[in-house]
Amino acid sequence: MSVLFHRLLIVGVGLIGGSLGLAAKARGLVDQVVGFGRTEANLKIALDRGLIDAYTFDPAEAARGTDCVLLAVPVQATGPVMQQFLPYLSPGCIVTDAGSVKAPVVATLESLVPDSLPCVAAHPIAGTENAGAGAAFETLFEGRLCVLTPTTRTNTDALARVRALWEGVGMRVEEMDPEVHDRILAQVSHLPHLIAFSVINGLLQAFPPSTPPQSEQIDPLVYAGSAFADLTRVAASPVEMWRDICLENRDALLAAISGFEAALTQMKAAVSEGDGRALSADITRAREERQRLTRLREKE
Fold this sequence. Notes:
Helices cover 50% and strands 13% of the residues. It is α/β, with parallel strands linked by helices and 300 residues long. The strands form 2 sheets. The protein has a 6-stranded parallel β-sheet with strand order 3-2-1-4-5-6, with helices on both faces. It has a 3-stranded mixed β-sheet with strand order 7-8-9, with helices on one face.
Protein backbone atom coordinates (compact mmCIF):
# COMPACT_ATOMS: atom_id res chain seq x y z
CA MET A 1 0.00 0.00 0.00
CA SER A 2 1.08 3.57 -0.57
CA VAL A 3 2.11 5.82 2.29
CA LEU A 4 -0.78 7.91 3.63
CA PHE A 5 1.08 9.86 6.29
CA HIS A 6 4.76 10.58 6.73
CA ARG A 7 4.56 11.17 10.49
CA LEU A 8 1.63 9.87 12.53
CA LEU A 9 1.44 11.15 16.10
CA ILE A 10 -0.50 8.84 18.41
CA VAL A 11 -1.59 10.52 21.62
CA GLY A 12 -2.45 7.69 23.98
CA VAL A 13 -0.57 4.55 22.95
CA GLY A 14 -2.92 1.99 24.47
CA LEU A 15 -4.92 -0.83 22.96
CA ILE A 16 -6.41 1.22 20.11
CA GLY A 17 -3.59 3.68 19.49
CA GLY A 18 -0.90 1.03 19.84
CA SER A 19 -2.68 -1.45 17.60
CA LEU A 20 -3.14 1.21 14.93
CA GLY A 21 0.53 2.15 15.07
CA LEU A 22 1.58 -1.47 14.74
CA ALA A 23 -0.86 -2.26 11.92
CA ALA A 24 -0.17 0.95 9.98
CA LYS A 25 3.59 0.38 10.15
CA ALA A 26 3.25 -3.25 9.07
CA ARG A 27 1.17 -2.26 6.04
CA GLY A 28 3.37 0.63 4.96
CA LEU A 29 0.67 3.24 5.56
CA VAL A 30 2.99 5.54 7.53
CA ASP A 31 6.69 6.35 7.44
CA GLN A 32 7.04 7.08 11.15
CA VAL A 33 4.87 6.70 14.24
CA VAL A 34 5.54 8.88 17.27
CA GLY A 35 3.95 8.23 20.64
CA PHE A 36 2.89 10.77 23.24
CA GLY A 37 1.43 9.83 26.61
CA ARG A 38 1.41 10.19 30.36
CA THR A 39 3.78 7.45 31.52
CA GLU A 40 7.21 6.55 30.24
CA ALA A 41 6.75 2.93 31.30
CA ASN A 42 3.87 2.47 28.85
CA LEU A 43 5.68 4.32 26.06
CA LYS A 44 8.78 2.18 26.56
CA ILE A 45 6.62 -0.93 26.16
CA ALA A 46 5.19 0.56 22.97
CA LEU A 47 8.67 1.28 21.64
CA ASP A 48 10.00 -2.16 22.56
CA ARG A 49 7.05 -3.85 20.88
CA GLY A 50 7.38 -1.80 17.69
CA LEU A 51 4.06 0.01 18.07
CA ILE A 52 5.87 3.33 17.68
CA ASP A 53 9.25 4.45 16.34
CA ALA A 54 9.88 7.11 18.98
CA TYR A 55 8.17 8.90 21.83
CA THR A 56 8.30 12.28 23.51
CA PHE A 57 6.64 14.26 26.31
CA ASP A 58 7.23 17.60 24.54
CA PRO A 59 4.18 18.78 22.52
CA ALA A 60 6.34 20.96 20.26
CA GLU A 61 8.66 18.07 19.43
CA ALA A 62 5.72 15.73 18.98
CA ALA A 63 4.03 18.11 16.54
CA ARG A 64 7.12 18.81 14.46
CA GLY A 65 6.64 17.40 10.95
CA THR A 66 3.44 15.60 11.94
CA ASP A 67 0.80 15.32 9.22
CA CYS A 68 -1.77 13.34 11.24
CA VAL A 69 -2.64 13.33 14.94
CA LEU A 70 -4.69 10.50 16.42
CA LEU A 71 -6.24 11.31 19.80
CA ALA A 72 -6.72 7.92 21.49
CA VAL A 73 -7.49 9.28 24.95
CA PRO A 74 -10.50 9.17 27.31
CA VAL A 75 -13.18 11.30 25.66
CA GLN A 76 -13.30 13.98 28.35
CA ALA A 77 -9.56 14.53 27.86
CA THR A 78 -9.94 15.25 24.13
CA GLY A 79 -10.13 19.04 24.44
CA PRO A 80 -7.42 19.61 27.06
CA VAL A 81 -5.03 17.23 25.31
CA MET A 82 -5.62 18.78 21.88
CA GLN A 83 -4.90 22.25 23.21
CA GLN A 84 -1.32 21.22 24.00
CA PHE A 85 -0.53 20.70 20.31
CA LEU A 86 -2.45 23.54 18.66
CA PRO A 87 0.39 26.11 18.78
CA TYR A 88 2.82 23.74 17.07
CA LEU A 89 0.96 21.80 14.36
CA SER A 90 1.57 22.85 10.77
CA PRO A 91 -1.35 23.82 8.51
CA GLY A 92 -2.78 20.79 6.73
CA CYS A 93 -2.12 18.36 9.58
CA ILE A 94 -5.18 16.14 10.00
CA VAL A 95 -6.65 15.77 13.48
CA THR A 96 -8.65 12.63 14.18
CA ASP A 97 -9.71 10.59 17.20
CA ALA A 98 -10.88 7.13 18.23
CA GLY A 99 -13.48 7.93 20.88
CA SER A 100 -16.59 5.86 21.56
CA VAL A 101 -18.70 9.02 21.89
CA LYS A 102 -18.86 11.35 18.92
CA ALA A 103 -21.25 14.32 19.23
CA PRO A 104 -19.53 16.05 22.18
CA VAL A 105 -16.08 15.18 20.83
CA VAL A 106 -16.94 16.64 17.42
CA ALA A 107 -18.30 19.79 19.07
CA THR A 108 -15.18 20.12 21.23
CA LEU A 109 -12.73 19.64 18.36
CA GLU A 110 -14.59 21.93 15.95
CA SER A 111 -14.65 24.67 18.57
CA LEU A 112 -10.90 24.35 19.20
CA VAL A 113 -9.28 23.38 15.92
CA PRO A 114 -8.85 26.05 13.22
CA ASP A 115 -9.87 25.36 9.63
CA SER A 116 -6.18 25.08 8.73
CA LEU A 117 -6.13 21.76 10.63
CA PRO A 118 -8.71 19.44 9.02
CA CYS A 119 -10.62 17.46 11.62
CA VAL A 120 -12.19 14.02 11.04
CA ALA A 121 -13.89 12.26 13.96
CA ALA A 122 -13.74 8.46 13.96
CA HIS A 123 -14.74 5.49 16.07
CA PRO A 124 -13.05 2.17 15.31
CA ILE A 125 -15.46 -0.32 16.88
CA ALA A 126 -12.90 -2.81 18.05
CA GLY A 127 -11.24 -3.61 21.30
CA THR A 128 -10.96 -5.85 24.30
CA GLU A 129 -11.29 -5.33 28.03
CA ASN A 130 -7.50 -4.95 28.25
CA ALA A 131 -5.61 -1.68 28.23
CA GLY A 132 -2.16 -0.25 27.63
CA ALA A 133 0.55 -0.79 25.05
CA GLY A 134 1.01 -4.37 26.23
CA ALA A 135 -2.53 -5.20 25.10
CA ALA A 136 -2.12 -3.95 21.50
CA PHE A 137 -1.99 -6.37 18.59
CA GLU A 138 -1.72 -5.97 14.83
CA THR A 139 -4.91 -7.73 13.75
CA LEU A 140 -7.29 -5.95 16.17
CA PHE A 141 -9.09 -4.05 13.41
CA GLU A 142 -9.35 -6.72 10.72
CA GLY A 143 -12.93 -7.21 9.58
CA ARG A 144 -14.32 -4.78 12.15
CA LEU A 145 -16.36 -1.63 11.57
CA CYS A 146 -15.12 1.96 11.83
CA VAL A 147 -17.63 4.81 11.90
CA LEU A 148 -16.65 8.27 10.65
CA THR A 149 -18.87 11.18 11.69
CA PRO A 150 -18.20 14.07 9.31
CA THR A 151 -20.02 17.39 9.50
CA THR A 152 -20.51 20.24 7.06
CA ARG A 153 -17.10 21.56 8.17
CA THR A 154 -15.23 18.33 7.41
CA ASN A 155 -12.61 18.59 4.67
CA THR A 156 -13.38 15.98 1.98
CA ASP A 157 -9.72 15.21 1.22
CA ALA A 158 -8.96 14.70 4.91
CA LEU A 159 -12.04 12.51 5.22
CA ALA A 160 -10.82 10.33 2.35
CA ARG A 161 -7.36 9.95 3.88
CA VAL A 162 -8.70 8.98 7.31
CA ARG A 163 -11.04 6.49 5.63
CA ALA A 164 -8.07 5.05 3.74
CA LEU A 165 -6.11 4.70 6.99
CA TRP A 166 -8.78 2.62 8.71
CA GLU A 167 -9.52 0.63 5.57
CA GLY A 168 -5.80 0.07 5.21
CA VAL A 169 -5.65 -1.73 8.58
CA GLY A 170 -8.55 -3.97 7.59
CA MET A 171 -11.67 -2.15 8.73
CA ARG A 172 -15.01 -1.65 7.02
CA VAL A 173 -15.79 2.07 7.11
CA GLU A 174 -19.17 3.81 7.26
CA GLU A 175 -20.20 7.42 7.75
CA MET A 176 -22.89 8.46 10.21
CA ASP A 177 -24.33 11.52 11.93
CA PRO A 178 -22.63 11.98 15.33
CA GLU A 179 -25.90 12.06 17.27
CA VAL A 180 -27.18 8.90 15.59
CA HIS A 181 -23.86 7.19 16.34
CA ASP A 182 -24.16 8.05 20.03
CA ARG A 183 -27.74 6.75 20.32
CA ILE A 184 -26.81 3.45 18.68
CA LEU A 185 -23.59 2.95 20.66
CA ALA A 186 -25.42 3.72 23.90
CA GLN A 187 -27.53 0.62 23.24
CA VAL A 188 -25.00 -1.82 21.81
CA SER A 189 -21.84 -0.84 23.70
CA HIS A 190 -22.25 1.60 26.56
CA LEU A 191 -25.29 -0.05 28.18
CA PRO A 192 -23.76 -3.57 28.02
CA HIS A 193 -20.70 -2.28 29.86
CA LEU A 194 -22.89 -0.74 32.58
CA ILE A 195 -24.80 -4.01 32.88
CA ALA A 196 -21.54 -5.92 33.27
CA PHE A 197 -20.35 -3.55 35.99
CA SER A 198 -23.73 -3.82 37.72
CA VAL A 199 -23.81 -7.61 37.63
CA ILE A 200 -20.45 -7.74 39.38
CA ASN A 201 -21.51 -5.11 41.92
CA GLY A 202 -24.78 -6.95 42.50
CA LEU A 203 -22.83 -10.11 43.29
CA LEU A 204 -20.71 -8.15 45.78
CA GLN A 205 -23.89 -6.93 47.46
CA ALA A 206 -25.30 -10.46 47.67
CA PHE A 207 -22.01 -11.92 48.93
CA PRO A 208 -20.08 -9.06 50.53
CA PRO A 209 -16.44 -9.90 51.15
CA SER A 210 -15.38 -9.76 54.77
CA THR A 211 -12.24 -8.01 56.00
CA PRO A 212 -10.18 -9.90 56.91
CA PRO A 213 -11.44 -12.86 54.83
CA GLN A 214 -12.95 -15.62 56.91
CA SER A 215 -11.72 -19.14 56.23
CA GLU A 216 -15.29 -20.44 55.98
CA GLN A 217 -16.45 -17.64 53.66
CA ILE A 218 -17.90 -18.82 50.34
CA ASP A 219 -16.42 -17.22 47.24
CA PRO A 220 -19.22 -17.18 44.64
CA LEU A 221 -16.78 -16.60 41.77
CA VAL A 222 -15.50 -20.15 42.28
CA TYR A 223 -18.89 -21.34 41.05
CA ALA A 224 -19.21 -18.93 38.11
CA GLY A 225 -19.64 -20.62 34.75
CA SER A 226 -19.22 -19.37 31.22
CA ALA A 227 -22.51 -17.43 31.27
CA PHE A 228 -21.30 -15.23 34.12
CA ALA A 229 -17.81 -14.94 32.63
CA ASP A 230 -19.08 -14.01 29.16
CA LEU A 231 -21.62 -11.53 30.50
CA THR A 232 -19.11 -9.75 32.72
CA ARG A 233 -15.95 -9.92 30.56
CA VAL A 234 -16.00 -6.19 29.84
CA ALA A 235 -16.31 -5.35 33.53
CA ALA A 236 -12.49 -5.53 33.52
CA SER A 237 -12.37 -2.50 31.19
CA PRO A 238 -10.42 0.69 32.05
CA VAL A 239 -12.12 2.85 34.67
CA GLU A 240 -11.26 6.29 33.32
CA MET A 241 -12.31 5.47 29.78
CA TRP A 242 -15.73 4.15 30.75
CA ARG A 243 -16.39 6.84 33.34
CA ASP A 244 -15.90 9.44 30.59
CA ILE A 245 -18.00 7.56 28.04
CA CYS A 246 -20.92 7.33 30.48
CA LEU A 247 -20.75 11.02 31.33
CA GLU A 248 -20.21 12.29 27.79
CA ASN A 249 -23.06 10.19 26.35
CA ARG A 250 -25.30 10.79 29.35
CA ASP A 251 -28.67 11.46 27.62
CA ALA A 252 -28.49 8.57 25.17
CA LEU A 253 -27.22 6.23 27.87
CA LEU A 254 -30.00 7.19 30.29
CA ALA A 255 -32.55 6.43 27.57
CA ALA A 256 -30.90 3.05 26.99
CA ILE A 257 -30.91 2.30 30.73
CA SER A 258 -34.62 3.15 30.92
CA GLY A 259 -35.36 0.74 28.10
CA PHE A 260 -33.36 -1.99 29.79
CA GLU A 261 -35.09 -1.36 33.12
CA ALA A 262 -38.47 -1.72 31.40
CA ALA A 263 -37.45 -5.01 29.78
CA LEU A 264 -36.03 -6.36 33.06
CA THR A 265 -39.15 -5.26 34.96
CA GLN A 266 -41.29 -7.13 32.44
CA MET A 267 -39.33 -10.33 32.96
CA LYS A 268 -39.31 -9.81 36.72
CA ALA A 269 -43.11 -9.60 36.67
CA ALA A 270 -43.35 -12.82 34.67
CA VAL A 271 -41.10 -14.62 37.17
CA SER A 272 -43.04 -13.17 40.12
CA GLU A 273 -46.39 -14.22 38.67
CA GLY A 274 -45.17 -17.63 37.52
CA ASP A 275 -46.15 -16.69 33.96
CA GLY A 276 -44.31 -19.27 31.87
CA ARG A 277 -45.92 -18.11 28.64
CA ALA A 278 -44.69 -14.55 29.07
CA LEU A 279 -41.23 -15.77 30.04
CA SER A 280 -41.07 -18.04 27.00
CA ALA A 281 -42.09 -15.17 24.73
CA ASP A 282 -39.43 -12.85 26.16
CA ILE A 283 -36.71 -15.51 25.99
CA THR A 284 -37.68 -16.54 22.46
CA ARG A 285 -37.63 -12.97 21.18
CA ALA A 286 -34.20 -12.39 22.73
CA ARG A 287 -32.88 -15.74 21.51
CA GLU A 288 -33.90 -15.06 17.91
CA GLU A 289 -32.31 -11.62 17.90
CA ARG A 290 -29.09 -13.01 19.41
CA GLN A 291 -29.02 -15.69 16.71
CA ARG A 292 -29.38 -12.95 14.11
CA LEU A 293 -26.32 -11.24 15.58
CA THR A 294 -24.38 -14.49 15.20
CA ARG A 295 -25.37 -14.68 11.53
CA LEU A 296 -24.31 -11.07 10.98
CA ARG A 297 -20.91 -11.75 12.58
CA GLU A 298 -20.43 -14.80 10.38
CA LYS A 299 -20.81 -12.60 7.29
CA GLU A 300 -18.04 -10.22 8.37
